[in-house]
Predict the 3D structure of the following.
Amino acid sequence: MAVTTKAFPATVGTTKDPGPSKPPNKYRQALPQYAAISPFFILFAVFGAFPVLFSIWISFHSWNGIGAMKWVGLQQYSYLLSDPKFWQSIGNTLIIWVLSTVPMLLLALVIANALHNATRFRSFYRIAYFIPNVTSVVAVTMVFGSIFSNNFGLLNAFLQSIGLTKIEWLTQPWGIKVAIASIVTWRWVGYNAIIFLAGLQAIPGDVYEAAKVDGASSRQTFWRVTVPLLRPVILFTAVTSTIGGLQIFTESQVLVGDTGGPGGSGTTIVSYLYQSAFLNNQFGYGAAIGWALFILIVLFSIINWRLIGGSDERIARRAARRTGREQADAR
């Protein structure tokens, strides 16, 4: 008996078409890069952005730093405008700023020009002039305090040696301001000289050769060639000196203490902020002083930019108007 087997057709395995592949998630791919730079943004948010925003918030409150905050609105700012101590601190700061910034920038420009023309020991002089900037401010202020001391100061000893009477530097309002301005000048003149030197080295030598061919003297070359070409650098140093000069604190604090000297003649804006917030526990009022200082810095920076940096734009506008009139007359 024959046995027959039924053959089943062979089945061929079929695979589904996966279709177009999904593009990789670009955010997931960039996750390692974001993780690598996240520490900076976290630290900036905690120690930079949050304090700024919080200072705005507490400036509208009365707060002693421990208890509950009390909303006072704009009362802190209205009291600020009528506070005589605040206006005195502004006057002290502006006087110290003028006494330190003007001679500092002029002396730095002269030193930079001398270093630029020096042929020997140029690197040594650069380091020597920059050392005061990296020296401890507290140590420098203590040294200058001994120099300007009323009874045993080196400056009064020199004045008496040449037949002059001694000056009570640290008990007279102007003497305190001169002492603080001297500290600021000594500390920052070398830094600004290095900045000016970098600007001088960027000026092409062909300009000086052309001025020499035209018969210009060294003084004329300095004031009519060097200074105009250094205008962007001068603007930078003026703005940075304004920002730093309006925030003077350590020199005044170490030299005359928390009281600001006789009659508060050495109290700067930041010193008054420190007294209000950390000595009198008026953190809301201290925050208001800080934002008033910010407005002053912005205002004086704009003034510096208009006086120094804006002259190029004025010259260009005048030249354009002159060209337009000449073309109109030609027609």
In short: The chain has one domain: 88-330.
